Amino acid sequence: MEVKTAVTALTALAQESRLRIFRLLVQAGETGLAAGEIADELDIPAATLTFHLKELSHAGLIDSQREGRSIRYALRVDGIRDLLNYLLHDCCKGRPELCGGGQCGHKKRERTATASMQPIKAKRLKSQR
């Protein structure tokens, strides 16, 4: 994941209504919810909800699928997984026990640093010498 993609996803989640929508879709699981169900559950007007769903979709965090006259929204698992992997890429300084019982997956995760992360890592290594 590139820095710009991560920033887009975090920006989408950094708004109260979108965070509430995202958390509701996490709870709904893979079946997701129809737009009307989300609006009813969170008491968000349809036009406002459409805007927020578009932002979450653009950020790669949710997917939509038309079902007749309604649209069903669900969490895009690979999108959130990519974001979490990006955020936790170098967590715990090689000590996964610091992440609460090794939950960060530091030992087993394949290293896929982007080119944009390399200069940051090089600076960090120089400052540790």
Describe this structure in words.
The protein has 129 residues and is mainly alpha-helical. It has two domains: 77 residues, Orthogonal Bundle (Arc Repressor Mutant, subunit A), CATH 1.10.10.10; 41 residues, no CATH class. Helix content is 52%, strand content 11%. It contains six helices and three strands, in the order H-H-E-H-H-E-E-H-H. Strands 1-3-2 form a three-stranded antiparallel sheet. Strand 2 and strand 3 form a beta hairpin. Helix 2 crosses helix 4. The longest helix is centred in the N-terminal third of the chain and has 13 residues. The protein is elongated and about 50 Å long. The chain starts with a helix and ends with a helix.
Strand order of the largest sheet: 1-3-2
User: Nearest-angstrom radius of gyration?
Assistant: 18 Å
| SS strand fraction | 5-15%
> What would CATH call the homologous superfamily of the largest domain?
Winged helix-like DNA-binding domain superfamily/Winged helix DNA-binding domain
| Backbone shape | elongated
CATH class of the largest domain: Mainly Alpha
Total number of beta strands: 3
| Secondary-structure class | mainly alpha
Domain count, please report it.
2
Question: Mean pLDDT, nearest integer?
Answer: 80
The helix fraction, in percent, is: 40-55%
